Amino acid sequence: MTDPALDAAIDKLRADGAAPSVIAAFVDRFQRLASGETGYLHEADLKPLTDPPMLADQQLDEHAAQALAQTAVVRLNGGLGTSMGLAGPKCLIPVRDGLTFLDIVVRQILALREAHGVRLPLLLMNSYNTSQASLDALARYPELPVEDLPLEFVQSREPKLLADTRMPVEWPANPGLEWCPPGHGDFYPSLYASGLITKLLDEGFRYLFVANMDNLGAVPDPRLAGWFAASGAPYAAEVTERTDMDRKGGHLAHRIADGRLVLRDTAQVSPDEMDSFIDIVKHPWTHTNNLWLDLQQVVEVLDANQGAISLPLIINRKTVDPADAGSPAVVQLEGAIGAAVEVFDGAQAIGVPRSRFLPVKATADLLVLRSDIYEFTDDALLVGREISPVVRLDPDYYKLIGDFEQHFPAGPPSLTEAHSLQVTGDFTFGKDVVVRGDAVLTTEQPQEIPEGAVVEN
Fold this sequence. Notes:
By secondary structure, this protein is an alpha/beta fold.
């Protein structure tokens, strides 16, 4: 017996030209939803990850160089900067010296090629929203392409489903709102559909290093490439020690039933277990979303599963028009790329320093990245303190990038002596402001922090 809602969604995907692997991945998510799967990973079923091998113990030798020579890089670049008030790709936000996330990532790749004498291709996993603008920006780097490898592959899209019937939504007022990205777990079926796995293997590239575009610390270190190649693992995740900033971030744990590593994100935690999830002593390692894949082993799994990987379900509940709370309630079925750790026999984790995990999810993160905490080196690396200060900015005044820029017209304050900065209310920062210790700023009326002021405790 077929499900009319699933049949309608498959018909819509086929009419949109979706690849068989993309349809297979959607069907898997839909059937998980229909079965009543919550996606929860319960504390009693898990054993915390402890004592992974460490990057600091790995050697930079000829084996590391050989592994890097067989490595290609994929940056996940499907996101728009909508949470910061932008209509375009997040990768085009200026970070330092007028350079965007994309500029810095490209310059890191070019510097590594020169330093190690490797080809090191860079591929973007773009979405239908980010593809053209990102490729236009890459046109400034004619030296970037490697042989005839493309600079991108485009992730799929899937229909939003009505929350009450699971039928694909119809929204004639704006048909584009009928579709959504299926999360970065779509990496696997979309990469498979692109034909790039075979092409990369034919060109002599066995390993993939994958990271988010907004993580400028995620540089393909040859020591990591060497460790991964020597491990023989099909898949490895980089983890770093959790801090207060990571309490709601995903972490790896061992599933007691079979000993496999699993990724647990906030959406996979039942409300009554949130306290244990955010316990950074009990679960001391956060997942960086920096991943290493052995393409020879990955393609075997994909070939056996119609080009898809069955990932834990993430159910994202929204309205069909995110700007209209009165529009119909929908569900978006998603998967996380890092959740594939449980699919591969022998998957591993390796501990890395905090410098490899510099995500920018909000303007507060951008403020830290722009500050004097980090030095921007000639090879496009950001070098700074191991643990950055915790910065929280009032979303009423700083959430959108335009408002954020207006409140720091002379640039960010000095944060080298700061442990934390909490800003509540409307403050505009003057030039050369210095923050020290645990600083708290609160106001009910607009205020200016004068040039050269010291804000502390």
